[in-house]
What does this fold into?
Amino acid sequence: MPFALMPHGYCFLWNRPLTLIHVLGDSAIAIAYFSIPTMMYLNRDRATEAIRPIIILFTLFILSCGIGHVFSAWNIWYGNYWLEGFWKLIIASISLWTAWVLVKTLPKFMGLHKHLQETELLALTDTLTGLKNRRGIEWAFEQIQATFADNSSLGHVLMLVDLDGFKGVNDTYGHATGDLVLKTVAHILCCRTRAVDTVGRFGGDEFAVILVGCSLVRSYQIAEDIRTAIAAITLPANSSSAPESCPQPPTPKASLVTASIGLLSLSANPKFDEAYNSADMALYRSKQEGRDRTTFITKPDPSESVLPAP
It folds into this structure.
C-alpha cells in the first residue's frame, strides 16, 4: 500500500487511518472543485456578456482551491511545503479579488434574480383578477399531470366557465363595472374550490378551473354551486360599487349575468390543447342548449351517483 511508504509520515504520527482520512478528504474536495468549473465551461453559452467576467473569476477561484487540496495530499509524501505555502498565497489573492468583485456585483445580481422571479410570476398571472392566465393554467396543467402520473386512479376534471350576457353588463353599466363583475366571479371561483385546485382566467369573460383528484359527480356539484352563485351577483346601482362577492344561493329569478359551464374528466396524460378543446365542446353545448347550465363531455363511472343527462 502507498500509505506504508511515507517519508513525511511523521506529520500524521505514522497513523495510517488518519492519513487515509486526509488523503480521501483532500482528493474528494479536489474532484468537486474541478467538476464545478467543468460544468460551468460546458454551459458557458448560457451566460450573458455582462456576467462572463464574474464567471471566469469564480472559475479561477474554484480551480485554485482544488489545486491547493491536491498539494495538501501531495505533501504527505513529498513535503513541498514552500510550494504549498506559495500556492495558498495565490488562493488568498484570488479569493480576496473574488470577494471584492462580489461585494459590488452580488446585490445587483440578487436583485436581478428577484426581478426575474417577479417577471415570471407576472407572466403567469392575470393582472385584473390575480388568477392564473392561460399560460399559467397550461403550466399548472403540466405540473399536475407530471405529479400524479403514477396514480392513474386519481382523476382530475377541467372546468371551463363562460359568462352569459357579459357584453350587456359593459354596455349598460360600463367597463369599470364589468371589471368588478370579473373580479367577483374570480372570487366566487376561489371561494368554492380548494387550495390544491387551480383557477385561472383565459381572457375576456372565460375562466378555467382544474379540479385535482375530483370525480365527475363531485365536479358537477361544484360547477352547479359556482353557476348558482354567479347568477346571484347583484349589479350595483352605482357603477363604482363592487358587486356582492360570494353571495348566498338566491331564490330563482332572472339575472343579467349567468354562466355556462363545460366539464371534462381528464384521461391519462392528456395534452392540454386536446383537453381544452374537449371541455370547450361541453361549454358550447351549454350555450346551445339555453345557457346558464353545466354540461359534461365524459360519462361518469356507473358506480357513482347519477348525473343529469348531458
In short: The first strand starts at residue 157 and ends at 164. The chain has eight helices and five strands. The chain has two domains: 2-122, 134-296.
